[in-house]
Amino acid sequence: MGRFVKSREVEPHDAGECSSRSRPSMEPTKLSTASIETENLDANFNFKGLIEDLESTSIKLQRNAAARLRLYVKNNMDNRILIANSGAIKPLVSLLLSVDPLTQENSVIALLNLSLYENNKSEITAAGAIKPLIHDAATTLYTLSSLRENKDRAIRAGAIRPLVDLMEDSSIGMVDKAAVVLGNLANLPEGKIVIVDEGGIPVLVEVVEVGSQRGKEYATATLLQLCEDSYLYRTLVLREGAIPPLVTLS
Questions:
Q1: Which one has a higher pLDDT value, 97 or 81?
Q2: 1-130 and 159-250, same CATH topology
Q3: With 70 as the cut, is the pLDDT of residue 9 above it?
Q4: What pLDDT does residue 97 have?
Q5: Region Disordered: what ranges (predicted)?
Q6: C-alpha dihedral over 170, 130, 122, 174, to 10 degrees?
Q7: Checking CA distances to 244, which of 67, 123, 127, 189 falls within 20 to 30 Å?
Q8: How many degrees, rounded to 5, is the angle at CA 30 between CA 27 and CA 34?
């Protein structure tokens, strides 16, 4: 489904310092976001150093390690497999409760993208953690997305794709909250573009048709935002058959 957000440089405090102690593999080399996202990891990569930083008591080390992991798993399925197998999921989950908003955000996006690999879901489910993991991640993103600067970062970080996926999978129980977050991100022009590019319109229309009452209201509000000042998006919404369920809802 959909296409990923085009790589762009992020703010220095977000991921530009994706380095940690004076380990050779983690020295600050000013790698661009694009170069990190496209880097294919292998079993010789210094996973141990990243995991140690995630578990560190230093907020800066935690933030930088989570930011780097977030970029590695944004577009690369092989990296999602290797990083999950390295033991990154558990410390990332613990960082959802970090007192640092950027660490929370980086951990949320990393976890949501890790969950796009089915075997990761199975392993987490076997541990009894998939639903609380996704719930905590989406809840944290919901809180973060209320601020303009966090909306910008969430869009650039690739949050929209996993949110659309959460809306498609009603078994996780996060459809309503994901719809709210998408609505927050649709407040920005770039958010609208990415929601449409990631296949969000048919998913939103489906929620209007078969979702909970609250989910229908959130999805309708997001569709209305998408349609504002865009003939193209209005046409796409009409093609998905949105009028009958919208009339029923009204």
A1: 81
A2: yes
A3: no
A4: 81
A5: 1-31
A6: 10
A7: 189
A8: 120
Confidence band, pLDDT 50/70/90 cuts, at residue 207: very high
Burial code (b: 16+ CB inside 10 Å, e: under 16) for 75-84 equals bbeebbbbbb
Of 75, 79, 78, 106, whose CA–CA distance to 92 is shortest?
106
Highest mean pLDDT among 27-31, 115-119, 140-144: 115-119
Give me the residue spans of the domains in the chain.
Answer: 1-130, 159-250
Q: Is the pTM of this model over 0.90?
A: no
Average pLDDT in the chain: 79
CATH architecture of 1-130: Alpha Horseshoe (1.25)
CB 191 within 8 A of CB 151: yes
Class of domain 159-250: mainly alpha
What is the rounded distance in angstroms from the CA atom of residue 174 to the CA atom of residue 87? 25
